[in-house]
Design a protein that fits this description.
The chain is of the alpha+beta class and 498 residues long. The protein folds into 5 domains: 43 residues; 88 residues, conserved putative lor/sdh protein from methanococcus maripaludis s2 fold (Beta Barrel); 87 residues, Efflux pump adaptor protein, beta barrel domain (Elongation Factor Tu (Ef-tu), domain 3, Beta Barrel); 115 residues, OB fold (Dihydrolipoamide Acetyltransferase, E2P); 79 residues, Copper binding periplasmic protein CusF (OB fold (Dihydrolipoamide Acetyltransferase, E2P), Beta Barrel), CATH 2.40.50.320. It has 9 helices and 31 strands. Strands 4, 6, 21, 22, 23, 24 and 25 form a 7-stranded antiparallel sheet that branches. A 6-stranded antiparallel beta barrel has the order 7-16-19-18-17-20. Strands 27-28-29-31-30 form a 5-stranded mixed β-barrel. α4 runs antiparallel to α5. The protein is rod-shaped.
């Protein structure tokens, strides 16, 4: 290699090395200038606690390795906690794809109903029994049989009563002697003659040994077995007539449903024999005895039957509706309530596409609505009716439900409440506390900010100290009135708070 060519290559190599060195120095200088600015944003954010994303409900006061998983703890910043206490947000495209639909919390009273099957039976209140008042012989049995319908006053049977013949003759003979006639009349009554029959005897003036028995009411003969020549004994049942102007529907209602029913509640019946017709009635009786095997209660519904179209044995489907006056309560669409197995949750829709789960206690359900017996919901509040299961799943994946629990109940103004918590951060007019449950307000344990009633009220406190705080409710939220230090640092391994 000649010397000029060697010098040229050497010059190029030195120039390239100098360029690389200068580029490295310049990059290092720029990185050095940028790092403080980048870290300034991280340093400005207040860390409330560290947590394991796989178990977000456990909080720690210092960073380090998670005791649950082989991974580093993740910081939770104050601005994130404040955002979570006001719900969690979802992208508009996400909620649109879920087909989220909203409903409204209403106030009103539900009248629950139960639909059961039953069968038509006779009204046992409308039964008449015809009996022999004295012994005799059947002279004539009119052409009737069990199952026939009879009108009121229709003749049933002619009975020869020899004992009546002699007593009637004696009564007619003694008509001119008032005292004796009265005694003879009394004897006729004792033998079983009615006042009407005695009046006919007086008008006729001739004794009769044969008496005709008539149907006391209209209805169906459920019992009639008289034949000519039969001997009847005093007190023997000759006929049984069931009225048909009103019938019963007997049904069996599950034990849990029957507890809400009462005598007089409305009933609507549909019969397979009368398609397209709905008959109105009311609950006539709730049988006191419960069937131990089926755990059901017998319910009787009274239905008018003026045309006689309802016949015992017909199949009926009955809707029993509670009609008692009830106080107005909060109502939500039944589809909005999520049953997790351990609790019931409703997803409340906040402003700007944010959502928050609210734990509730549901009551009875009717007409697609459910009573809310307790929970931090208010009349007119918007809630998720469709797509809430996917929102709940999304919140669970983010750990939102475990971290924030449910929305705390609002504290009534003017009253002072007491809680215990660990200081997470302190500002001039605000303190962030990881507090224990507050039973008076049904608040779960959570980390949340509190306003200070007086600026600088917490200037003596530092993160990690345990304190008892007394707070009231304001329009802006809870405000701490007084603080008492309980411990300098929360005990634990390495300063961590489990």
């Amino acid at each position: 290699m000649n010397k000029p060519r060697f010098n040229t290559l050497l010059s190029l190599f030195l120039a390239l090395a100098a360029g690389i060195f200068l580029g490295w120095r310049l990059g290092a200088h720029n990185a050095h200038e940028a790092t403080p600015a980048a870290n300034a944003g991280e340093t400005a954010r207040k860390v409330l606690y560290w947590y394991d994303p796989m178990k977000p409900d456990a909080h720690f006061a210092q960073p380090g390795k998670s005791p649950f998983m082989d991974m580093e703890l993740v910081p939770r910043y104050a601005d994130e906690a404040q955002s979570e206490n006001s719900g969690f947000g979802l992208a508009p495209a996400f909620t649109q794809n879920l087909g989220v639909k909203l409903g409204t919390v209403e106030k009103g009273a539900l009248h629950p109903f139960v639909e059961v099957s039953g069968s038509v039976t006779f009204d046992e209140h409308g039964v008449s029994v015809v009996q022999a008042r004295t012994g005799g012989i059947v002279e004539r049995a009119y052409p009737l049989a069990a199952g026939d319908r009879v009108r009121a006053g229709a003749p049933l049977v002619d009975i020869r009563v020899p004992e009546w013949f002699a007593a009637q003759s004696e009564y007619l003979v003694l008509q001119d002697v008032p005292q004796l006639a009265a005694a003879a009349r009394s004897r006729l009554l004792q033998l079983g003659m009615t006042a009407r029959q005695i009046g006919e005897l007086e008008r006729r003036g001739q004794p009769r040994a044969i008496v005709t028995l008539y149907a006391p009411r209209a209805g169906m003969l459920s019992e009639f077995a008289l034949r000519q020549g039969m001997t009847v004994m005093p007190g023997q049942t000759l006929a049984r007539i069931n009225g048909v102007d009103q019938v019963w529907i007997e049904a069996r209602v599950p034990e849990a449903e029957a507890a809400r029913l009462a005598i007089g509640d409305k009933a609507a019946a549909r019969l397979t024999a009368l398609p397209g017709q709905t008959l109105e009635g009311k609950i006539d009786a709730l049988i006191p005895e419960l069937d131990r095997e089926t755990r059901t209660l017998r319910v009787r519904v009274a239905l008018p039957n003026p045309k006689g179209i309802l016949r015992p044995g017909m199949l009926a489907f009955v809707r029993l509706e509670e009609t008692q006056n009830k106080a107005a309560v909060l109502l939500v669409p039944t589809d909005a309530v999520i049953a997790t197995g351990k609790r019931h949750v409703v997803i409340a829709a906040l402003e700007e596409g944010r959502f928050i789960p609210v734990e509730v206690t549901p009551g009875i359900e009717a007409d697609g609505k459910t009573e809310i017996l307790s929970g931090a919901l208010g009349e007119g509040e918007r809630i998720v009716v469709s797509g809430q299961f996917m929102i709940d799943s999304e919140a669970s994946l983010r750990g939102v439900l475990a971290r924030m629990g449910t929305r705390p109940a609002a504290a009534p103004p003017g009253r002072i409440y007491t809680g215990v918590g660990v200081v997470q951060s302190v500002a001039e007019d605000e303190i962030v506390l990881a507090h224990e449950p507050v039973p008076e307000l049904e608040w779960p344990a959570m980390t949340m900010p509190f306003a200070l009633a007086k600026p600088g009220l917490a200037h003596d406190l530092a993160p990690g100290q345990k304190a008892r705080f007394h707070f009231t409710a304001t329009d802006e939220g809870p405000a701490v009135e007084r603080l008492e230090v309980l411990a300098e640092r929360e005990p634990g391994n390495g300063g961590r708070r489990p």
